[in-house]
Design a protein that fits this description.
Layout lengths: L1 H9 L1 H17 L1 E2 L2 E2 L4 H11 L6 H56 L3 H11 L3 H11 L3 H27 L4 H11 L6 E6 L10 H7 L5 E7 L2 E3 L12 E6 L1 H11 L13 E7 L10 H4 L1 H5 L2 E7 L2 E3 L12 E7 H11 L11 H15 L2 E3 L5 E3 L1 H16 L1 E2 L2 E2 L4 H34 L1 H25 L4 H11 L3 H10 L4 H27 L1
Antiparallel strand pairs: 1-2, 3-6, 4-5, 4-6, 7-10, 8-9, 8-10, 11-12, 13-14
């Protein structure tokens, strides 16, 4: 064993690859349907740290940067809509969660006779908050805080990871229902379609362009059937009574057109015709960043774009919608026109596997620089966003805008997920080896009281935050779990949530809550040690 430890310490890359292989294997083992996932790396890293293996700190920092930056990229497109809907509630949830954790830590320290410095470290560790630890060390000047942090940190990681996997199973949550609720609430409603029969005499002779412009509906007309003859749905196509039209949009938007045009015809069967549809991929850089109004697909090619898939969601485009690299667009029109438009859009699927490294590198650099800028709150208190907050903020900004000038910051989904997983594994490996070095010694010397306090400070705020979000605010499960992870500043917890349900809603909620929690814990952690 000593020889193996020596080899690993001399060759950290070998140690890291062995850690990733064994930890990933451990994370895939399921027990009663529950698995550790990426947190399996944490357990293996703690065991390696206990035996004396030390991974370079740069692994941990690199992992945090990669993970949080890609989380920002994923959440950016939805962030503002979510904050507009939940903004004040997110603030309340963050402060409520941290306040409950603070009170529980205070009570545990008093009842169990734990030293103030250890209790402060337990509070920061249960919340997996390195800024909270740094602020406490800076103000209280007591190195024992790090011991409490080292004991509570693994409990904080494991507790949140297990919580976000167990709660949905115990409550038998239907993830598809929750995803639909989240999409509808965040301005990304489920896209549907319906056949309508025109019965409004005032529409006789009106064009599709005129109707869509005055309907106050976000739905679009994608088919027109006149006496069982299909007509291209162009802006200049004229409508008349008893025509059948197919409309695409959210249920709410379709109902608006239904009131204007006429009733639904659920049993209508579309006749065979040369009017068809195709899903093409935008890979031609020349049209990226240009709006549909500018491109004039309807006017020039007789084609209608009925829906677009971008990143993790589907939506019905409007005239101001811009096309971006990697968009999947559904076009409706004549078969010959669809063939003409294909080279204009590009439709070269192999290009989706190409990652633009210059925008990726610039975004990472901006995040690291931002994370190192000191922010002074008073002469005695200052903090930095750090290697988590800086890249997260940078990823959020570029993810929201997507394109800045001619530079496209979006990443292919597969590449983004790979970088995200790699970053999480690196972070857990570095943090686990550091915590494992002192974990067992502290437990032996301090007894079970520290572990008990760590478990209570982790579990009670989780349950309280879930209850507030789910039963008081009435949020969907994805927003609940993402916000809870953000309030607990738990990066591994978020990683577990995003693997349970394939949706970006949890990441968006996490990003909205995390900055508030990051700032608040830097005040509350030192305050705990001062008042005990």
């Amino acid at each position: 064993m000593d020889y193996l430890v020596l080899i690993f310490n001399e060759q950290p890359v070998l140690a890291l690859t062995a850690l990733i292989a064994v930890g990933t294997l451990l994370g895939r083992i399921q027990c009663w349907g529950i698995s550790l996932g990426a947190s399996g790396v944490l357990f293996v890293a703690m065991a390696m740290g206990h035996w004396g293996v030390r991974l370079p700190e740069v692994f941990t920092d690199l992992g945090v940067v990669l993970f949080t930056y890609t989380i920002g990229l994923q959440a950016g497109p939805h962030f503002l809509r979510t904050v507009r809907r939940y903004g004040l509630s997110y603030l309340v949830l963050a402060l409520f969660t941290l306040g409950i954790a603070w009170l529980v830590a205070f009570a545990s320290a008093t009842l169990l006779g734990i030293e103030p410095s250890l209790a402060t470290g337990i509070y920061a560790g249960a919340l997996t908050s390195t800024p909270g630890l740094a602020a406490s060390l800076q103000i209280l000047k007591d190195p024992t805080i790090s011991v409490g942090y080292g004991v509570a940190y693994p409990m904080g990681v494991i507790g949140v990871v297990l919580f976000v996997q167990l709660v949905p199973r115990l409550l038998k949550i239907d993830w598809q229902v929750e995803i639909n609720r989240s999409d509808a609430g965040n301005g990304n409603p489920v896209v549907d379609s319906a056949w309508l029969r025109i019965t409004n005499p005032q529409l006789e002779g009106k064009t599709i362009g005129e109707v869509e412009a005055t309907s106050m509906s976000g739905a679009v007309i994608s088919r027109v059937i006149d006496k069982y003859v299909a007509m291209p749905p162009q802006a200049r196509t004229r409508l008349c009574l008893n025509q059948y039209v197919r409309v695409v949009g959210s249920e709410e938007e379709i109902k608006k057109l239904e009131l204007l045009l006429g009733p639904r015809e659920a049993g209508f069967k579309e006749p065979r015709s040369v009017i068809s549809s195709a899903t093409l991929i935008v890979t031609e850089e020349n049209i990226c960043g240009k709006s549909l109004r500018h491109l004039q697909f309807r006017e020039l090619y007789g084609l209608t774009i009925s829906r677009i898939w971008r990143d993790d969601f589907e939506f019905v485009p409007q005239g101001h919608t811009t096309l971006e690299f990697g968009d999947e667009v559904r076009l409706v029109g004549d078969v010959a026109d669809l063939a003409r438009i294909e080279p204009i859009l590009g439709h070269k699927a192999q290009r989706l596997n190409e990652t633009q490294f210059l925008p990726f590198a610039i975004g990472l650099l901006a995040g690291v620089v931002l994370g190192n800028i000191p922010i002074s709150l008073s002469p005695a208190i200052s903090f930095q966003l750090g290697m988590a907050g800086g890249p997260l903020t940078a990823g959020l900004v570029v993810g929201h805008f997507g394109r800045i000038s001619k530079m496209n910051f979006r990443m292919p989904v597969a590449a983004r997920r790979f970088v995200n997983d790699l970053g999480l594994i690196l972070f857990l490996g570095g943090a686990g080896s550091e915590a494992g070095a002192s974990f067992w010694q502290v437990v032996q010397s301090q007894g079970g009281s520290l572990l008990l306090a760590s478990a209570i400070v982790t579990l009670v705020p989780l349950v309280a935050a879930w209850g507030l979000a789910r039963h008081v605010f009435g949020w969907d499960a994805l927003n609940c779990l993402g916000a809870v992870c953000g309030a607990m500043t738990s990066t591994p917890g978020l990683g577990a949530v995003t693997r349970v349900a394939d949706s970006s809603a949890a990441s968006t909620a996490y990003v909205a809550v995390y900055p508030v929690a990051l700032l608040a814990v830097t005040f509350l952690a030192p305050l705990l040690g001062s008042l005990l």
